[in-house]
Specification:
CATH architecture: 3 Solenoid
Radius of gyration: 22 Å
Largest sheet: 17 strands, parallel
Structural class: alpha/beta
């Protein structure tokens, strides 16, 4: 081999090495960047969601103190220290509250309800209603508005984990983890948006919900979510619940926009949940982009990729191939901005 050819090959090899180093450095920088955990989605609209901003801050450690604090009028931030076990009926949260878990093991065992109230933030909480505590959801809403639920763990529940019903509106659920531990529980349901085909007058034009960077995890069976009437925007969500029945249920007059999410060995990423017995019921519709990842998952072919609503707020979805790593690292209580330093 002559010197010129050898020199050219050496230069080519060196340039290739430099390129690989540059790619590796770029990937390293990308992986090192902390995600933006600020509020995004429907909860930012129509005045936004500020919770207890401007009000006093109180720390609670007992069920009595918690119940009094969340049920008091006026703006307030309530810091939950440790696990609080509620007694009796669901505890109602009044408007203008931020409820924030302290540390990595804060939460509420029992049902939280938001009824005819708004401007509420729940973050960094472990929520559950195991058998013997409550026969209801961990969190439910009726005619609620402007709610942000972020970095919460939804665990074992006797009923579903989170129900959004009766015309609730302007809601964002972000960076949350949904899972079950008891395989014998036949009611392993995650999220219901719109609870009956009978409530068309109440729900039509409402139930606008953003779900992003959530983790549908072990033993969740279905309702991830199950939607009626609402406009639901799902992006960057990780579905990894082996043995599930279905993921997204499209009920009467629902619209679901699915973007840049990841399905891992999931059964039926979406299905038609419209009740055929309801006269005049319009089947739900779904739109999905090409950036969704379907690993060991069959894409349903019964529904066309529909023209739906465009999200009326700014957002920047992460690439679908990064969702598994991002979500499993940062979603849930005690993670993301609440992770130990």
């Amino acid at each position: 081999m002559n010197k010129r050819k050898s020199s050219n090959l050496t230069a080519l090899a060196f340039s290739g090495f430099v390129a690989l180093v540059a790619i590796a450095q770029a990937q390293s920088v990308t992986n090192a960047v902390t995600p933006d955990f600020s509020l995004v989605g429907f909860a930012t609209l129509d005045g936004g969601t500020t919770g207890g901003a401007g009000g006093p801050t109180n720390t609670v450690t007992t069920a009595a103190a918690f119940t009094a604090a969340v049920g008091a009028p006026g703006a307030a931030t309530i810091l939950v220290a440790g696990k609080i076990e509620l007694v009796g009926d669901a505890v109602r949260i009044k408007s203008d509250k931020t409820i924030l878990g302290v540390g990595t093991n804060a939460g509420v065992v029992g049902t939280l309800s938001i009824v005819d109230a708004g401007n509420i933030i729940l973050r960094n909480l472990q929520l559950a209603t195991p058998p013997g505590v409550s026969g209801r959801d961990a969190l439910n809403t009726s005619r609620a508005h402007h709610l942000w639920v972020d970095h919460c763990d939804f665990g074992e529940c006797t009923d579903g984990q989170f129900d959004i019903t009766h015309g609730s509106d302007f809601i964002t659920v972000s960076w949350c983890r949904f899972s079950y531990t008891n395989a014998a529980n036949s009611h392993r349901l995650s999220m219901l948006i719109g609870n009956s085909d009978r409530y068309a007058a109440e729900d039509t034009g409402k139930l606008r919900v953003t779900l992003h960077h959530n983790w549908l995890d072990t033993l969740v069976r279905e309702r991830m979510p199950r939607v009626r009437f609402g406009q639901v925007h799902i992006f960057n969500t990780y579905y990894a619940a082996p043995g599930n029945n279905y993921c997204i249920g499209l009920g009467r007059d629902s619209q679901v926009r699915l973007e840049s999410s990841s399905f891992d060995a999931a059964k039926r990423p979406w299905r038609d949940s419209t009740d055929a017995k309801v006269a005049g019921a319009t089947p739900g519709r779904i739109a999905w982009n090409a950036d969704n990842v379907f690993a060991a998952t069959e894409v349903p072919d019964w529904a066309p990729n529909a023209e739906l609503f465009q999200p009326p707020y700014p957002y920047r979805p992460d690439a679908g191939v990064t969702v598994k790593e991002l979500v499993t690292k940062h979603a849930g209580a005690g993670r993301g901005p609440f992770a130990p330093k």
